[in-house]
Amino acid sequence: MVGAGLLAQVDPSVIAEGVNLLWVAVVCFLIFFMHAGFAMLEAGQVRAKNVANQLTKNLLTWSVGILVYFLIGFGVEAVAGGSGVSMETFTAAMTAPDGAWVNSWLFGAVFAMTAATIVSGAVAGRAKLRAYVGYTIVLSAVIYPVVAGMSWYGGGLLAGLGFTDFAGGMVVHGMGGIAGLTAAYVIGPRMDRYADDGSTNVIPGHSMTFAVLGTLVLAFGWYGFNVGTTATVFAVENGELTLGGFGVVGRVALTTTLGMAAGGIGAALGALALTKKVDTLYVANGLLAGLVGVTGIVDLVTWWGAIAVALICGLQLPFVFEFVSDTLQIDDVCAVFPVHGSAGVIGILALPFVHVNGFSVDLLVSQVVGTAVITVWTVAATAAVFGAFKAAGQARVSLEHEREGLDVSEHGVDTYPEFGKPIAADGSGTSVRADGGEEAGSEIKMVTAIVRPEKLGDIKTALAGVGAPSLTVTNVSGRGSQPAKTGQWRGEEYVVDLHQKVKVECVVADVPADEVANAIREAASTGEPGDGKVFVLPVEDALQVRTGTAGPEAV
Q1: Could you tell me what percent of the chain has a pLDDT over 90?
Q2: Whole-prediction pTM value?
């Protein structure tokens, strides 16, 4: 009774405002966490030599984009939404009351940055960092704010026509996917992506694990994206607390979850029909495509409609990706168009057919017009920006830098520094010692072995056992008698004729080289083709850098 009495003395509007503000803040944090998913997903789909570049682009998307949206984009969005051009409008983000910085500016900012980061996956592996950052500035300042303002503000052009997009199926994801496709077309494909005869060469990403984990992180954050857009938990009516937008949270949560599941199934079926195999990456991409498909309609779609739309969005993914990649020959590295672009369009256009209130011609017209306007604006603006960079020779890195990898050429780092670089190692866990001889006239020999990577641990142990723990290890690839095999990346088959191996080099003087060679052979053997070879080579002389000692003593 006491508690009830105290509650009766509290202004309901204070409770409503506090709970709603907390809800939006938590949602914004969830959506921000999606950037971790984007980083992992994209990093997994690029080659090992471009991972740091992709991670840097994701970091700078947020760092640069959020400042630009704060200083410029938020105001442009309000103008596009019909607020009128004035200094007050353009400085709204800087002068907003405390609560508005969360439920208005921050809420808009995390959506804007999601749209921006989608593009990086399409132009991975060849876009110059300055070109991508330059485009991020324009997208955050103008391109996305215009789309959001037209669609989500009461005075916006598309909102006035009845265009409906609940949480950004077209405004965020569709726009981002279309922008990515346009950018990829303008700057051209990665080197060696297409052969001279027009055939497609598959360039696999370096980590399926990263791609799948990134997908699951994104799916988790998506609950903030969709469920979070029911941004008012409480409202006050006649002095009493009532449920606000939260009244549809159950439907939004249900259709989001069903869409996620159906998208993965649709992609699995599409991949099976296209390649006769259930491709892992297609399933992961399809899960996201299903989410994109229902994002714009989750509050108004029937449960069966959510399943149907997401199933179609997943199903179309392998076919649209193959059409874009092989027929149009646009190198969309991370499949951002079939995941975000076409899936976003399908979901928005499907709403009139799966609406809880039944079919509506007026709604269909509004959805078609809205989709067309956003598409034309996005293509034109994106083509203009990347076209300008291309005309200035700044859109993509040089062939030399692309061959070397953007990690080194753009950032001066190696994400995996042990790849192709000598690594000192020993099998005993103690410090490496020299194998230098004490007997006059001892021969210096180098034992070199090309073996399976998974046998390296056994080899180090074996070398320590014969008294020769010092070695150098290099990751290499090559071919010998081991037959070529086929691999598959996103449903496309490619020939693996260069097999991953490690090269183990051990220079000895007082330890018999034949003992070292036999130790390696026994440790590396599996009895199958491809175990490798061991070579014993004479070394004319050796010189120790630190002391200047020459001959066997230097070893």
Answers
A1: 62
A2: 0.80
